[in-house]
Amino acid sequence: MHKLKIISLTVLFTVVFAPTMLYAQQPVGSNRVLSYASVVDGDTIPLVHLKTVVIARKWALLTDKEIRKNQKLIRNVKKVLPYAKEARRRLQELEKEMAGMSAKKQKEYVKQVEQEVLDDFYEDLEKLTFSQGKVLLKLVDRETGNTSYTLVADLRGKFRASFYNTFARMFGFNMKERYDPKNNKDDNLLERVVRSVELGKI
Fold this sequence. Notes:
The protein is mostly helical and 202 residues long.
C-alpha cells in the first residue's frame, strides 16, 4: 500500500516535470519557436495542453441507484480529482514561465518548483488510501493523456518505471494500462462519476 502511495506521488511530480525533459539545444532565435514535445516511438511530437471541455450528452450521468451503490468511488474521486487537475494547472504555468529560458535556467527552475510541489502535496498524498491511490493514477492519465508508466519513464527512466510497475501489479494495478472509458467497464463508471462531480450532480 505504501509503495502505491510512493508511485502516486512520483507520478504527480512527473506530470509537472515530464514536458521539461526536452530542453532546447540552441538559444531561441528570431526564426525559432520554443515548444514542448513528447517522444513517441522515436518521433518528436509537439505537446499542446488545451482547456478541458466537458460534453455531457455523450456520457450518461449517474442514476440515483448508481449513486447509492458507488458511494466509496464517489468519495475517492472527490478526494483525488483536485490533485490531478492541480497537476495539470501547474504544468500549464510551468510552460508559460519557462518559455524563452535557457536550458540551465530551466533546470534550476524545475528544481525550485519540484520542492514547492513536494511541500504542497507530500503530506496529503501520504494520507491517501490504496483505492484512492489507484483512482489518482487513473485520473492523472485522464488529465494528461499519458499512462503513469509513461510519465515515470520519461522523468525517472524505464528501469525505475518498471520497478514501480512491479510493485503496482502486486496490488492489482498495471501502470501501463490506459484509461479507456469507452471500452473498459470500470473506467466507464469512473468517467461518469467524474463528469457527474464536475457538473455538480453529486
